[in-house]
Protein backbone atom coordinates (compact mmCIF):
# COMPACT_ATOMS: atom_id res chain seq x y z
CA UNK A 1 0.00 0.00 0.00
CA UNK A 2 1.42 3.37 -1.02
CA UNK A 3 1.11 6.38 1.25
CA UNK A 4 1.84 10.00 0.36
CA UNK A 5 2.68 8.97 -3.19
CA UNK A 6 1.60 10.89 -6.28
CA UNK A 7 -1.10 9.19 -8.33
CA UNK A 8 -1.91 10.55 -11.74
CA UNK A 9 -5.64 11.31 -11.91
CA UNK A 10 -7.83 13.65 -13.93
CA UNK A 11 -9.33 16.11 -11.46
CA UNK A 12 -9.48 19.92 -11.28
CA UNK A 13 -6.81 19.86 -8.58
CA UNK A 14 -4.46 17.62 -10.58
CA UNK A 15 -4.81 19.88 -13.63
CA UNK A 16 -3.37 22.88 -11.75
CA UNK A 17 0.34 23.47 -12.21
CA UNK A 18 2.71 22.64 -9.39
CA UNK A 19 3.70 26.31 -9.02
CA UNK A 20 0.06 27.27 -8.46
CA UNK A 21 -0.44 24.58 -5.83
CA UNK A 22 2.80 25.49 -4.07
CA UNK A 23 1.90 29.19 -3.95
CA UNK A 24 -1.67 28.42 -2.87
CA UNK A 25 -0.48 26.11 -0.10
CA UNK A 26 2.05 28.68 1.19
CA UNK A 27 -0.50 31.53 1.25
CA UNK A 28 -3.25 29.28 2.65
CA UNK A 29 -1.02 28.08 5.49
CA UNK A 30 0.09 31.63 6.29
CA UNK A 31 -3.52 32.81 6.41
CA UNK A 32 -4.65 29.90 8.60
CA UNK A 33 -1.77 30.39 11.03
CA UNK A 34 -2.23 34.15 11.18
CA UNK A 35 -5.90 34.29 12.14
CA UNK A 36 -7.95 33.08 15.09
CA UNK A 37 -11.20 34.13 13.43
CA UNK A 38 -13.43 31.09 13.91
CA UNK A 39 -15.58 31.94 10.89
CA UNK A 40 -12.61 31.96 8.53
CA UNK A 41 -11.13 28.81 10.05
CA UNK A 42 -14.40 26.89 9.66
CA UNK A 43 -14.60 28.04 6.05
CA UNK A 44 -10.98 26.99 5.45
CA UNK A 45 -11.56 23.54 6.95
CA UNK A 46 -14.75 22.93 4.96
CA UNK A 47 -13.12 24.15 1.74
CA UNK A 48 -10.11 21.87 2.28
CA UNK A 49 -12.32 18.82 2.81
CA UNK A 50 -14.38 19.64 -0.30
CA UNK A 51 -11.24 19.97 -2.42
CA UNK A 52 -9.90 16.71 -0.98
CA UNK A 53 -13.13 15.07 -2.13
CA UNK A 54 -12.97 16.67 -5.58
CA UNK A 55 -9.38 15.50 -6.06
CA UNK A 56 -10.53 11.85 -5.68
CA UNK A 57 -7.56 11.08 -3.45
CA UNK A 58 -8.28 7.91 -1.47
CA UNK A 59 -8.27 7.91 2.33
CA UNK A 60 -5.92 4.91 2.52
CA UNK A 61 -3.19 6.96 0.82
CA UNK A 62 -2.86 9.24 3.85
CA UNK A 63 -4.71 7.42 6.64
CA UNK A 64 -1.58 6.36 8.55
CA UNK A 65 -0.14 9.88 8.55
CA UNK A 66 -3.55 11.18 9.57
CA UNK A 67 -3.42 8.83 12.56
CA UNK A 68 0.06 10.10 13.52
CA UNK A 69 -1.08 13.71 13.22
CA UNK A 70 -4.11 12.87 15.36
CA UNK A 71 -1.83 11.60 18.15
CA UNK A 72 0.23 14.80 18.09
CA UNK A 73 -3.00 16.80 17.89
CA UNK A 74 -4.21 15.27 21.17
CA UNK A 75 -0.83 15.71 22.85
CA UNK A 76 -0.77 19.35 21.77
CA UNK A 77 -4.19 20.04 23.27
CA UNK A 78 -3.33 18.29 26.53
CA UNK A 79 -0.08 20.30 26.75
CA UNK A 80 -1.89 23.59 26.08
CA UNK A 81 -4.33 22.91 28.91
CA UNK A 82 -1.66 21.69 31.34
CA UNK A 83 0.73 24.61 30.82
CA UNK A 84 -1.75 27.40 30.08
CA UNK A 85 -5.27 26.47 31.25
CA UNK A 86 -6.40 30.12 31.43
CA UNK A 87 -5.01 31.26 28.07
CA UNK A 88 -8.50 31.77 26.67
CA UNK A 89 -9.50 33.90 29.66
CA UNK A 90 -6.53 36.19 29.07
CA UNK A 91 -7.28 36.50 25.35
CA UNK A 92 -11.03 37.11 25.47
CA UNK A 93 -11.15 39.07 28.71
CA UNK A 94 -14.06 37.20 30.30
CA UNK A 95 -14.41 34.09 32.45
CA UNK A 96 -17.27 31.59 32.29
CA UNK A 97 -16.41 28.61 34.50
CA UNK A 98 -17.94 25.31 33.41
CA UNK A 99 -16.18 23.00 35.86
CA UNK A 100 -14.47 23.85 39.15
CA UNK A 101 -11.07 22.18 39.51
CA UNK A 102 -8.22 22.72 42.00
CA UNK A 103 -5.81 25.59 41.47
CA UNK A 104 -5.87 27.32 38.12
CA UNK A 105 -7.27 24.35 36.24
CA UNK A 106 -10.91 25.47 36.14
CA UNK A 107 -12.47 24.50 32.83
CA UNK A 108 -13.71 27.71 31.21
CA UNK A 109 -15.76 28.34 28.10
CA UNK A 110 -13.10 30.75 26.87
CA UNK A 111 -10.36 28.10 27.08
CA UNK A 112 -12.50 25.58 25.19
CA UNK A 113 -13.23 28.15 22.50
CA UNK A 114 -9.53 29.00 22.21
CA UNK A 115 -8.60 25.34 21.83
CA UNK A 116 -11.42 24.88 19.32
CA UNK A 117 -9.70 27.49 17.16
CA UNK A 118 -6.43 25.58 17.50
CA UNK A 119 -8.22 22.43 16.31
CA UNK A 120 -9.71 24.33 13.37
CA UNK A 121 -6.22 25.44 12.36
CA UNK A 122 -5.28 21.77 12.02
CA UNK A 123 -8.44 21.18 10.01
CA UNK A 124 -7.68 24.15 7.77
CA UNK A 125 -4.08 23.25 6.89
CA UNK A 126 -3.89 19.44 6.88
CA UNK A 127 -6.31 18.71 3.97
CA UNK A 128 -4.56 21.28 1.76
CA UNK A 129 -1.15 19.85 2.70
CA UNK A 130 -2.31 16.36 1.69
CA UNK A 131 -3.72 17.78 -1.53
CA UNK A 132 -0.44 19.45 -2.39
CA UNK A 133 1.69 16.35 -1.78
CA UNK A 134 -0.68 13.77 -3.32
CA UNK A 135 -1.69 15.68 -6.46
CA UNK A 136 1.67 17.15 -7.51
CA UNK A 137 4.10 15.20 -9.66
CA UNK A 138 7.58 15.32 -8.02
CA UNK A 139 9.25 16.40 -11.25
CA UNK A 140 6.75 19.18 -11.75
CA UNK A 141 7.08 20.12 -8.09
CA UNK A 142 10.80 20.73 -8.57
CA UNK A 143 10.09 22.88 -11.62
CA UNK A 144 7.47 24.80 -9.63
CA UNK A 145 9.86 25.57 -6.79
CA UNK A 146 12.47 26.75 -9.26
CA UNK A 147 9.90 28.96 -10.99
CA UNK A 148 9.29 30.64 -7.61
CA UNK A 149 13.02 31.57 -7.52
CA UNK A 150 14.08 28.71 -5.23
CA UNK A 151 17.49 27.22 -6.11
CA UNK A 152 17.13 24.34 -8.53
CA UNK A 153 19.50 22.29 -6.36
CA UNK A 154 17.12 22.59 -3.41
CA UNK A 155 14.14 21.99 -5.69
CA UNK A 156 15.65 18.83 -7.11
CA UNK A 157 16.57 17.52 -3.65
CA UNK A 158 12.95 17.91 -2.48
CA UNK A 159 11.72 16.29 -5.69
CA UNK A 160 13.96 13.24 -5.17
CA UNK A 161 12.78 12.90 -1.57
CA UNK A 162 9.15 12.84 -2.68
CA UNK A 163 9.86 10.51 -5.59
CA UNK A 164 11.49 7.89 -3.37
CA UNK A 165 8.78 7.76 -0.68
CA UNK A 166 7.09 4.80 -2.49
CA UNK A 167 10.47 3.04 -2.81
CA UNK A 168 11.18 3.39 0.90
CA UNK A 169 7.71 2.06 1.71
CA UNK A 170 8.31 -0.93 -0.57
CA UNK A 171 11.68 -1.61 1.06
CA UNK A 172 10.11 -1.44 4.51
CA UNK A 173 7.42 -3.93 3.50
CA UNK A 174 9.98 -6.32 1.99
CA UNK A 175 12.24 -6.16 5.07
CA UNK A 176 9.19 -6.54 7.33
CA UNK A 177 7.98 -9.62 5.45
CA UNK A 178 11.46 -11.16 5.61
CA UNK A 179 11.65 -10.51 9.35
CA UNK A 180 8.21 -12.00 9.95
CA UNK A 181 9.19 -15.10 7.95
CA UNK A 182 12.03 -15.55 10.47
CA UNK A 183 9.57 -15.34 13.36
CA UNK A 184 9.97 -11.66 14.27
CA UNK A 185 6.48 -10.45 15.18
CA UNK A 186 5.54 -6.76 14.93
CA UNK A 187 1.79 -7.22 15.18
CA UNK A 188 -0.45 -6.25 18.10
CA UNK A 189 -0.17 -9.82 19.42
CA UNK A 190 3.32 -9.07 20.73
CA UNK A 191 4.01 -7.02 23.86
CA UNK A 192 4.63 -3.32 23.21
CA UNK A 193 8.25 -3.30 24.40
CA UNK A 194 9.26 -6.29 22.30
CA UNK A 195 7.30 -5.00 19.32
CA UNK A 196 9.23 -1.71 19.45
CA UNK A 197 12.53 -3.62 19.56
CA UNK A 198 11.44 -5.69 16.56
CA UNK A 199 10.47 -2.55 14.62
CA UNK A 200 13.87 -0.99 15.39
CA UNK A 201 15.46 -4.16 14.06
CA UNK A 202 13.57 -3.60 10.80
CA UNK A 203 14.41 0.09 10.62
CA UNK A 204 18.18 -0.40 10.73
CA UNK A 205 18.37 -2.35 7.41
CA UNK A 206 15.95 0.21 5.94
CA UNK A 207 18.21 3.09 6.96
CA UNK A 208 21.29 1.34 5.57
CA UNK A 209 19.58 0.58 2.24
CA UNK A 210 18.41 4.20 2.02
CA UNK A 211 21.96 5.46 2.61
CA UNK A 212 23.22 3.15 -0.13
CA UNK A 213 20.56 4.52 -2.49
CA UNK A 214 21.58 8.09 -1.63
CA UNK A 215 25.22 7.34 -2.44
CA UNK A 216 24.22 5.78 -5.78
CA UNK A 217 22.05 8.74 -6.76
CA UNK A 218 24.68 11.27 -5.65
CA UNK A 219 27.37 9.54 -7.70
CA UNK A 220 25.12 9.39 -10.77
CA UNK A 221 24.24 13.09 -10.49
CA UNK A 222 27.86 14.07 -10.01
CA UNK A 223 28.94 12.06 -13.06
CA UNK A 224 26.32 13.90 -15.13
CA UNK A 225 27.58 17.30 -13.99
CA UNK A 226 24.61 18.24 -11.83
CA UNK A 227 25.08 21.72 -10.32
CA UNK A 228 27.65 22.85 -12.85
CA UNK A 229 25.43 25.56 -14.37
CA UNK A 230 23.47 28.28 -12.58
CA UNK A 231 20.22 27.52 -14.39
CA UNK A 232 18.55 24.49 -15.92
CA UNK A 233 15.47 23.58 -17.93
CA UNK A 234 12.68 21.28 -16.74
CA UNK A 235 10.99 18.51 -18.68
CA UNK A 236 7.72 18.72 -16.74
CA UNK A 237 7.40 22.49 -16.44
CA UNK A 238 3.92 23.66 -17.53
CA UNK A 239 2.65 27.16 -18.37
CA UNK A 240 -0.19 28.74 -16.41
CA UNK A 241 -3.73 28.37 -17.74
CA UNK A 242 -7.02 29.99 -16.76
CA UNK A 243 -7.56 27.67 -13.79
CA UNK A 244 -4.18 28.64 -12.32
CA UNK A 245 -4.88 32.36 -12.54
CA UNK A 246 -8.34 31.92 -11.01
CA UNK A 247 -6.93 29.88 -8.13
CA UNK A 248 -4.25 32.45 -7.34
CA UNK A 249 -6.80 35.28 -7.63
CA UNK A 250 -9.16 33.46 -5.25
CA UNK A 251 -6.42 33.01 -2.67
CA UNK A 252 -5.37 36.66 -3.02
CA UNK A 253 -8.96 37.82 -2.40
CA UNK A 254 -9.33 35.56 0.66
CA UNK A 255 -6.03 36.73 2.10
CA UNK A 256 -6.87 40.40 1.45
CA UNK A 257 -10.27 40.00 3.14
CA UNK A 258 -8.65 38.32 6.13
CA UNK A 259 -6.01 41.04 6.52
CA UNK A 260 -8.65 43.79 6.16
CA UNK A 261 -10.90 42.25 8.82
CA UNK A 262 -7.96 41.76 11.18
CA UNK A 263 -6.88 45.40 10.82
CA UNK A 264 -10.45 46.69 11.11
CA UNK A 265 -11.09 44.66 14.27
CA UNK A 266 -7.65 45.43 15.71
CA UNK A 267 -7.08 41.82 16.72
CA UNK A 268 -6.48 38.39 15.23
CA UNK A 269 -9.07 36.90 17.58
CA UNK A 270 -12.82 36.67 16.96
CA UNK A 271 -14.44 37.28 20.34
CA UNK A 272 -17.90 35.74 20.80
CA UNK A 273 -18.03 36.73 24.47
CA UNK A 274 -18.60 40.46 23.97
Automatic annotation (TrEMBL):
Topology versus the membrane: Multi-pass membrane protein
Lineage: superkingdom: Bacteria
Statement: the UniProt record of this protein carries the keyword Endoplasmic reticulum: no
Membrane-spanning residues: 22-52, 64-83, 112-135, 240-263
A Pfam family it matches: CbiQ
Broad class of the protein's primary localization: membrane
Subcellular localization(s) per the UniProt record: Membrane
Name this polypeptide is given: Energy-coupling factor transporter transmembrane component T family protein
The species this protein was found in: Cohnella soli
